[in-house]
Amino acid sequence: MPPPRKNPAARARILAQWRGVDYAPLEAARVTPARAPGEVLSALLKELRLDTRQAEAELVKVWNALIDPVVTAHAQPANLHKGTLFVNVDSSVWLTEIVRYRRKEIIERLQISFGKSVIQKISFRIG
Known about the structure:
The chain is an alpha+beta fold.
């Protein structure tokens, strides 16, 4: 025979008498309802900005595959913001070389790979 079910209201009443104060409303307020895993996971991914990090990793991978290895040895993409790709170059000599002679080739290759709406401009800087 199963044990008799306890009345939760009677339990709360007895605890309130024993404590001298009724904590039932406070305890009910502290209880958070369970949420669906998909809801929690999507919020977590948004907070961690993993989609942005994945896009940046993909950009570096494509950069290293499409661009001349001599250039990639001296210039690496830093970030992409509002259609502008920021590229860090290790010296002013290479900055001049890339901006004068290779900028057009680099932007064309990246726009073919990613699309003109994703990469609209390239900004090279020493860094």
